[in-house]
UniProtKB/TrEMBL annotation:
The family this protein is said to belong to: Belongs to the GARS family.
GO BP annotations, alphabetical order: 'de novo' IMP biosynthetic process; purine nucleobase biosynthetic process
Pathways involved: Purine metabolism; IMP biosynthesis via de novo pathway; N(1)-(5-phospho-D-ribosyl)glycinamide from 5-phospho-alpha-D-ribose 1-diphosphate: step 2/2
GO molecular function list: ATP binding; metal ion binding; phosphoribosylamine-glycine ligase activity
Source species of the chain: Amphibalanus amphitrite (Striped barnacle)
Limits of the ATP-grasp domain: 109-316
Pfam family, one: GARS_C
Protein name, UniProt field: phosphoribosylamine--glycine ligase
Swiss-Prot/TrEMBL keywords: ATP-binding, Ligase, Manganese, Metal-binding, Nucleotide-binding, Purine biosynthesis
PROSITE patterns: ATP_GRASP, GARS
EC number, as in UniProt: 6.3.4.13
Database matches in InterPro entries: ATP-grasp (IPR011761), ATP_grasp_subdomain_1 (IPR013815), PreATP-grasp_dom_sf (IPR016185), PRibGlycinamid_synth_ATP-grasp (IPR020561), PRibGlycinamide_synth (IPR000115), PRibGlycinamide_synth_C-dom (IPR020560), PRibGlycinamide_synth_C_sf (IPR037123), PRibGlycinamide_synth_CS (IPR020559)
Length: 428
């Protein structure tokens, strides 16, 4: 039986750990940094600086770690997977060169253009005046993205050209996104429905997951600022036709993986495509180099196959014969509880109550921004996104009702959540 090290401490990582722990081949899961719940008989939080790659390698050797799974994008962009592989430690997560697909959006857009992967028309700028001139040149150039990593908050979808120009000034002149915003991508605003599709890959083959639908805006009705994700539904019914979904495997995933093979780039892990499904078909809005959050929280409960077997097959380059199966008789809905002030500044260390009552509804509680107080052990808030309340039922409507019921039962000061998660799916 194996010991697994899981890097990360959000709801995504709790969902991954929960699924890995179901494998009879996993003995123990080490989490760094973990959070307020990811500790039980076979899970343990450990303290290690993931920016210190030698320290991570030493931990793996000291604890006989058989596999490392990297959740967030920052360690991947920093080359942690490369350092682990050089040290002989198996790692599920792409090389820094592969992670560039998320860490450098200008590179990603140019690569999509080169490979003829459908994406919105765009321009790349480091000069604010040039970017504003580009915006004013056409009426629909309204999406401004920081090219670097900005924790999922580096995108402004403007209502008009003036707002888009202000977003450019904030990024390039005001330093709103720091170094991540020293270069911006300005692109055409597409009309349609957003959907997320991810795929496992061993660097040569891909296994596509069911589509999920994230809800990025803070407020119901898709209003307010963009966030890291306020909830999700999977599978996303009707957003993609069966023919479109089948075509994505080759057009959006395999084409990119094949290119990396020719370039000698190592990509083992999850490849995420954020799509806009328009009247003329799906377009790629962005690629991410890891599991999506909160999409992972709704997909892991639907995965029937052993997750440890899948990631091990990816690491060993033998994904092709592995059967990755999903529940087809159920839907999952995730309602995320967030702190007051999120995605801006927010208070911390607020007591959370009502978890037992929420769990009694049948929901799974995947913790994100939580921690345990010392020495009493009370559960406290520690982040913007606090808890994921995930319900699985035989219909989207039933799952949504369960998740919203659980959301009402959990209490902490300033709690916010959207009451319309999965409403678009229901409307279909």
């Amino acid at each position: 039986m194996a010991t697994v090290l899981l890097i990360g401490g959000g709801g995504r990582e709790h969902a991954i750990a929960w699924k890995l722990a179901q494998s009879p081949k996993v003995k123990h899961i080490l989490l760094t940094p973990g959070n307020g719940v990811t500790v039980d008989d076979n899970m343990e939080c450990v303290a290690v600086n993931v920016k210190d790659h030698e320290a991570v390698v030493s931990l793996c050797r000291d604890r006989s770690v058989a596999l490392v799974v990297v959740g967030p994008e920052d360690p991947l962009a920093d080359g942690l997977a490369d350092s682990l592989r050089r040290a002989g430690v198996p790692c599920f997560g792409p090389s820094a060169a592969g992670a560039r697909i998320e860490a450098d959006k200008a590179y990603a857009k140019r690569l999509m253009e080169e490979l003829r992967i459908p994406t919105a028309p765009f321009g790349v700028f480091t000069d604010a005046d040039s970017a504003k001139e580009y915006i004013r040149g056409e009426p629909n150039r309204l999406v401004v993205k920081a090219s670097g990593l900005a924790a999922g908050k580096g995108v402004v979808v403007a209502a008009d050209a003036e707002e888009a120009c202000r977003a450019v000034e904030d990024a390039l002149l005001g330093g709103r996104f720091g170094e991540a915003g020293a270069k911006v991508v300005v692109e055409e605003k597409l009309q349609g429905e957003e959907v997320s599709v991810m795929a496992f890959t061993d660097g040569r083959h891909v296994a596509v997951m069911p589509p999920a639908q994230d809800h990025k805006r803070l407020l119901s009705g898709d209003r307010g600022p963009n966030t890291g994700g306020m909830g999700a539904v999977a599978p996303a019914p009707g957003a993609l036709t069966a023919q479109q979904l089948s075509g994505l495997e080759q057009l959006v995933f395999q084409r990119l993986v094949d290119h990396w093979v020719t370039e000698g780039i190592s990509y083992c892990g999850v490849l995420y495509a954020g799509l806009m499904v328009t009247a003329t078909g799906p377009y790629v809005l962005e690629y991410n180099c890891r599991f999506g959050d909160p999409e992972t929280e709704v997909l892991m409960p639907l995965l029937q196959s052993d997750l440890f077997d899948i990631v091990t097959a990816c690491v060993e380059g033998r994904l092709c014969p592995i059967d990755v199966s999903w529940r087809t008789d159920a839907a999952a809905v995730d309602v995320v509880l967030v702190s007051a002030g999120y995605p801006g500044s927010y208070p911390k260390n607020l007591e959370i109550t009502g978890l037992d009552a929420a769990a009694a509804t049948g929901c799974r509680l995947f913790h994100a921004g939580t921690r345990r107080s010392e020495p009493a052990g009370s559960l406290l808030t520690s982040g913007g996104r606090v808890l994921n309340l995930v319900a699985v039922a035989d219909s989207v409507a039933a799952a949504r009702q369960m998740a919203l019921q659980a959301a009402q039962l959990v209490q902490f000061e300033g709690k916010q959540y959207r009451e319309d998660i999965a409403a678009r799916a229901l409307a279909r």
